[in-house]
Structure formats: structure tokens, C-alpha cells
Amino acid sequence: MTVVAPKLTLERRLLGECELIISLDEVGRGALAGPVAVGAAVMDAAGARRRVPEGLRDSKLVTELRRPEVAARAAAWVQASAVGWASAAEIDEVGIMRALGLAASRAVQAVADQGAVLDGALILLDGNHDYLSKVHPTPLRVRPVVKADRDCASVSAASVIAKVARDTHMTELHGTHPAYQWDRNKGYASTAHRDAIRSVGLSPHHRASWAIADVPTLF
């Protein structure tokens, strides 16, 4: 099946209505262990006239081997980028949707700290639900778009940047918790991961409030 490359059609149109787009996408939402991460990529009118980097796709459509180089090209292409995090403990405390909001808010604040002006900016959020506005301390203009990570190049950039950052984090955690094979499954529900949970129990990085034993194996 041919995978269509993401474009800047929507971004270019929206930049006629706003000064800046901050595109967001999450990774790690369905994992059993580790944080959830939200990538942010900043696009302005000048940036939207630049060619989309070679190989840029939604992170799920880029092989693990190629993701780091694609993420590096994406980060160099956009005006600023960042990754916001919410820990497994925060997910247990406030639930996954509010944790997504926390991670997204932190990502937005991180690009603001790099100089992105939030007044006049539009937040382009992958999905059909605005999980950001209820959490962020100041009002934001948020536009959820279904399949934005597939179709909108700036959101694809946020997606692959966040994916590489989270995968790297989970691989680092593997060093102190090798039984779960996080270097391979990145905290998701593989058979080996679930077998390790049954054998040695949960780590501090697991989302303990989830019904982990009942979660279907993903791969």
C-alpha cells in the first residue's frame, strides 16, 4: 500500500488566520509502563513555504531504524520543537486524559520558553478531543484534527520527535529494569513484558492503576 506523504495544505490555510501554529501529537498513551509524551512543533508562514523533509511521516509509519534521522530533520525544519512529559505516577494519580493535558501543556510551555509567542498562536492537536485547554493555565486557541499526524506535516514532525524521545527514554530505563525488555517493547503490552510482570511484579515505572493483567497483548 502506498503511503501518502503529509502536506502543509492545512497549515498554510490556517496561517492566513493566525501568526503561528504549534502542532502537537502524543505517544505512549496505550503503554503499560513509562511516561506519556507530547511532541510540539512550531510552524510560521515562512516555515510553511519550506519543503517537507524527506521521509517525514506519522511516527507509526516510519521504521524504528529510520526514526532518529527523520526526527533530526524534522527538528531542524521547524522553528522550534519540544517534548512534554507526564509520568506513570501522574497517570495513576489523575488519569490518562488529564496526564495527556499536562504533557501537552508542558510541551507548549517549552516552545514558549524558546520564544514562541502564544498570543495569536493556534494549537493544532492530533485527534478529536481537546485535552489541553482544561489543563493549561492560560487560554489557548486549540483545534483538534483527526488524522493530523498522518496528513499535516507539522504534526507528523511533532509525532516523530516525541516518538524518538520516548523510545530513547524507555531504552535507558531498560538498563535498570531488563526483565521487562523495554528496549524492544518500549513499555507496551508485548507477551514478554506481561510475562515479566507476572514473574517479578510491577516496577515504579508501571501504571499501577491500570488493569495490566487484563490488557490485550499488542505484539
Automatic annotation (TrEMBL):
The keyword Cell wall biogenesis/degradation appears for this protein: no
Cofactor: binding details: Manganese or magnesium. Binds 1 divalent metal ion per monomer in the absence of substrate. May bind a second metal ion after substrate binding.
Entry EC number(s): 3.1.26.4
Residue ranges that the Swiss-Prot or TrEMBL entry lists as coiled coil: none
Compartments where located: Cytoplasm
Molecular function per GO: metal ion binding; RNA binding; RNA-DNA hybrid ribonuclease activity
Predominant cellular place of this UniProt entry's protein: cytoplasm
Cofactors demanded by this protein: Mn(2+); Mg(2+)
Positions annotated to bind a divalent metal cation: 25-26, 126
Residue ranges annotated for the RNase H type-2 domain, each copy included: 19-219
InterPro entries registered for this protein in UniProt: RNase_HII, RNase_HII/HIII, RNase_HII/HIII_dom, RNaseH-like_sf, RNaseH_sf
GO biological process, one term: mismatch repair
Entry superkingdom: Bacteria
GO CC list: cytoplasm; ribonuclease H2 complex
Name this protein carries in UniProt: Ribonuclease
Species, as recorded: Microbacterium maritypicum (Microbacterium liquefaciens)
